[in-house]
């Protein structure tokens, strides 16, 4: 089978490229104002269709701009295992998205197909699952993507409708593994894994106590809407979802994890005195202050929980003694978390550049790998072979009851986590089950280590900035790294780095130090150097 050029040109002519804009395949796909994305999304549909033919598997395509403002939108592609599109395909996706001449669009596709043998290893038919979040531009863009998929002969597009991004990734993985892949199956798997963990709690507390109430910020988006699917079937947790979008709230405006993490403020409709017994806060002289238990704290909690059971297995079951366990972070990880993981838990910690695709890839190399970005993106991965051993080992082969229980617990954890991609729903219930199992309060969890004070700022101009060593060092413009080193040397326990954002047209500055004043001062000092050396066009106030 070859490419039907006239079919492709005819379909593509309905989606002209807006002039004068270059679309970049950023940290996680294309993102821009939703009004100018039709062409890019149509062409991403072509990429997904070809990827399906190339892998002989079902592929996913998601219309979303995650934490960006409501007027933005974007498109991401999920590979057969449910992870992000192979990075080898990103340059192709980018050149296709930016080709202004229609005849050349066919040429770009044909060249890529030939070079990569797209049809050589492939099936004669393919399938792409399409979904979107609740953004107003989503319906129109989903239709453009569908037309892109269908422009490639032999590939069908199945529109699932409104889903969270991790749900789509999960469904793609489940479809390709030949197991139940419906939205209902997704909820059932999380719920049964969670139930299995809480059923194994050594000394069950009164699970109906008010401390099991979890208040969730729905960020006025798809998460709020979908959480109700779990609410009904999750035992032992009472969910109170706020910012559901129904009272006029706007997606990601003064709400959402990104807002809370970057601004260090409560989302709207949180932080009232009435919440005091329900969520984690302390009171200072000014009133209520926020305590943020971010991706680093989640990672640390899960590492403690998993390592405890893994150690049980390693010591009792000799063929599991060599099972390896590692954690993956980015440069944004608070220095105190990395220190705790290495020195107190003795686990291997690896750094990668920002973006789930990098962390996921690294974590997949361990028998059990946990990855989290400080912003909360993350999950736990179980290597297929290790998972198979756990599943197939008969109860009698475990020397002790404790080892058998540890194996069952790890299997239950693997059900609750979304192994395709980081997923706030599964992480929420994994954290809750870990706390319940270990009989920890949120305060116990928070006390594992004390964060070093940090500050993040944004500056221009990202186009000239180049980094290396998992984004911890600048290679261009010259002189910037030594200027940063000089600023770092001025403060106690200082650390700072800068990187071009992959989702916004800014340079991100990160600084941490022994005190908040020093962290603020360091961030400001570094931002000024970026401004001066990287053709800066504006400093934050
Ligand atoms: C995207 C990435 C996230 C990363 C963030 C960085 C995925 C699913 N999401 O949201 O991992 O932390 O971008 O944004 O890959 P930035 O490049 O603007 O700092």
Automatic annotation (TrEMBL):
Residue ranges of the Alpha-D-phosphohexomutase alpha/beta/alpha domain? Answer: 56-90, 99-177
The prosthetic group or cofactor this protein requires is: Mg(2+)
List the SUPFAM superfamilies: Phosphoglucomutase, C-terminal domain, Phosphoglucomutase, first 3 domains
Q: Which GO terms describe its molecular function?
A: magnesium ion binding; phosphoacetylglucosamine mutase activity
Q: Which reaction does it catalyse?
A: N-acetyl-alpha-D-glucosamine 1-phosphate = N-acetyl-D-glucosamine 6-phosphate
Q: Give the cofactor note text.
A: Binds 1 Mg(2+) ion per subunit.
Active site, per annotation: 66
Q: Which residues bind Mg(2+)?
A: 66, 284
State where substrate binds: 373-375, 499-503, 508
Q: Which GO terms describe its biological process?
A: carbohydrate metabolic process; UDP-N-acetylglucosamine biosynthetic process
Residues folding into a coiled coil are none
What residue stretches are annotated with the Phosphoacetylglucosamine mutase AMG1 domain?
294-440
> Does Acyltransferase count among this protein's keywords?
no
Q: Write out the pathway annotation from the protein's UniProt entry.
A: Nucleotide-sugar biosynthesis; UDP-N-acetyl-alpha-D-glucosamine biosynthesis; N-acetyl-alpha-D-glucosamine 1-phosphate from alpha-D-glucosamine 6-phosphate (route I): step 2/2
Q: Which Gene3D superfamilies match?
A: Alpha-D-Glucose-1,6-Bisphosphate, subunit A, domain 3, Alpha-D-phosphohexomutase, C-terminal domain
Supply the EC number(s). 5.4.2.3
Supply the CDD domains for this chain.
PGM3
Alphabetically ordered keywords of this record: Isomerase, Magnesium, Metal-binding, Phosphoprotein
Tell me the ranges covered by the Alpha-D-phosphohexomutase C-terminal domain, including all copies: 474-524
- Give the family per the record: Belongs to the phosphohexose mutase family.
| Chain's role | Interconverts GlcNAc-6-P and GlcNAc-1-P.
Protein name according to UniProt:
Phosphoacetylglucosamine mutase
């Amino acid at each position: 089978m070859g490419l039907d050029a006239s079919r492709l040109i005819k379909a593509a002519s309905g989606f002209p490229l807006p002039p004068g804009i270059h679309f970049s395949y950023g940290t996680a796909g294309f993102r821009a104002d939703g009004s100018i994305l039709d062409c890019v999304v149509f062409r991403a549909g072509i990429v997904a269709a070809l990827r399906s033919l190339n892998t002989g598997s079902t592929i996913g395509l998601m219309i979303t701009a995650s934490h960006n403002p409501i007027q933005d939108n974007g498109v991401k592609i999920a590979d057969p295992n449910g992870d992000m599109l192979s990075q080898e395909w990103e340059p192709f996706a980018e050149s296709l998205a930016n080709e202004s001449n229609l005849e050349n669009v066919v040429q770009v596709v044909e060249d890529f197909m030939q070079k990569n043998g797209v049809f050589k290893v492939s099936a004669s038919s393919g399938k792409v699952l399409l979904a979107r979040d609740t953004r107003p531009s989503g319906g129109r863009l989903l239709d453009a993507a569908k037309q892109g998929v269908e422009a490639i002969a032999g590939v069908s597009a199945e529109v699932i409708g409104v889903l969270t991004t991790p749900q789509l990734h999960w469904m793609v993985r489940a479809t390709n593994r030949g197991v139940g892949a419906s939205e209902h199956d997704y909820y059932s798997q999380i719920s049964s894994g969670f139930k299995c963990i809480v059923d194994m709690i050594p000394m069950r507390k009164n699970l109906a106590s008010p401390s099991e109430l979890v208040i969730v910020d729905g960020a006025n988006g798809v998460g709020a809407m979908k959480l109700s699917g779990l609410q009904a079937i999750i035992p032992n947790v009472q969910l109170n979802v706020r910012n559901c979008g129904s009272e006029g709230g706007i997606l990601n405006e003064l709400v959402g994890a990104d807002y809370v993490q970057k601004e260090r403020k409560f989302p709207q409709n949180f932080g009232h005195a009435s919440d005091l017994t329900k969520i984690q806060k302390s009171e200072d002289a000014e009133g209520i202050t926020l305590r943020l238990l971010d991706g680093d704290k989640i990672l640390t909690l899960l590492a403690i929980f998993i390592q405890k059971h893994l150690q049980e297995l390693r010591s009792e079951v000799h063929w599991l003694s060599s099972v390896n366990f590692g954690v993956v972070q980015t440069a944004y990880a608070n220095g105190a978390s990395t220190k705790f993981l290495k020195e107190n838990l003795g686990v291997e910690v690896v750094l990668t550049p920002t973006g789930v695709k990098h962390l996921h890839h690294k974590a997949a190399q361990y028998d059990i790998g946990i990855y989290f970005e400080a912003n909360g993106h993350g999950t736990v991965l179980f290597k297929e072979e290790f998972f198979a051993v756990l599943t197939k080992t008969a109860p009698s082969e475990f020397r002790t009851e404790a080892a058998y229980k540890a194996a069952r617990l790890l299997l239950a954890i693997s059900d609750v986590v979304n192994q395709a991609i980081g997923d706030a729903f599964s992480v929420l219930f994994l954290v809750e089950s870990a706390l319940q199992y270990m009989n920890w309060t949120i305060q116990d969890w928070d006390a594992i280590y004390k964060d070093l004070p940090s500050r993040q700022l944004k500056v221009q101009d990202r186009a000239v900035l180049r980094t290396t060593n998992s984004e911890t060092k600048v290679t261009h413009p010259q002189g910037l790294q030594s200027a940063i080193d000089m600023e770092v040397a001025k403060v106690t326990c200082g650390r700072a780095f800068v990187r071009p954002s992959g989702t916004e047209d800014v340079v991100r500055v990160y600084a941490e130090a022994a005190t908040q004043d020093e962290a603020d001062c360091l961030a400001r000092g570094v931002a000024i150097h970026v401004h001066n050396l990287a053709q800066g066009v504006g400093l934050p106030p």
